[in-house]
Amino acid sequence: MLIHIQNENVSAAIDTLGAELVSFKGDDGFEHIWQGDKKYWGGHAPVLFPIVGALRDGRTRINGAWYEMGRHGFARRQEFAVVEQREDAVSLRIEATEETKKQYPFDFAFTVSYILTGSSITTQFKVENTGEEPLPFCVGGHPGFNLPVEADEVFEDYDIVFEKPETQKCPEIGMQSCLIDYDMIHFTLDDEDVIPLEHNLFYRDALVFSDLESTCVSLRSRKSGRGVMMEFSDFPMLGIWSAANDGPYVALEPWTGCATAVSESDEFTEKRGMRTLAPGETEELAYTVFVL
């Protein structure tokens, strides 16, 4: 089921399946969210929980037992219940079930909220530990953005622009295993704040950034200045991705953690970026996308 929200500047649509943002339009009617053309990539803006990325061989060890879980977790395949709605905002929620416990043996509640303010949309994640043992988790966003915005522009007219100059070494991601190898470097930045967009940036999967100086990143046209900006200060990692098939979109992905690293064990609690909530604790994290 689709839920529609709007204000005087922007509108959005959210699918209750996966609590996924499937539309975000400015006042000119341009659709900023990738519309899921399966020729390139069938998603829009998946919600990633309780893992980000892939596990080694699709499984992990929790409390001495093995559990299987698909890439990016199970939330994106769950039907969410609408728990609050107004004209310019909506909140959707899932809770642990016997089925989720076959993959992730914990009691939890997970709420995804979308709030429109001015020409922006905020995505807020709320994770609650409703059980009696510590709750480990990772969470992230995966919104894909249509490019170009203007009809007379092309993909290569756009830049990835960071708020501040960055020095980074982006690790390799295994094309078959989908694991991250921090000993192999995919892409580097040396005190730079602009990456000119080219499809070949993504031929070996995502660019993965950690501990950036910037809390904002833009996809912005050098010609028109159009595009989007994301504020992601709650998240220590950022993935930037497009499928390796020259699709006309780019995903900006704020993460708390990432795929299993080649150097890591299969213990769930030892995954890079894993957060843990004590019984009764709650954590909220949010990112905001602005129309440029």
Automatic annotation (TrEMBL):
<protein>
    <submittedName>
        <fullName>Aldose 1-epimerase family protein</fullName>
    </submittedName>
</protein>
<dbReference type="Pfam" id="PF01263">
    <property type="entry name" value="Aldose_epim"/>
</dbReference>
<dbReference type="InterPro" id="IPR037481">
    <property type="entry name" value="LacX"/>
</dbReference>
<dbReference type="InterPro" id="IPR014718">
    <property type="entry name" value="GH-type_carb-bd"/>
</dbReference>
<dbReference type="InterPro" id="IPR008183">
    <property type="entry name" value="Aldose_1/G6P_1-epimerase"/>
</dbReference>
<dbReference type="InterPro" id="IPR011013">
    <property type="entry name" value="Gal_mutarotase_sf_dom"/>
</dbReference>
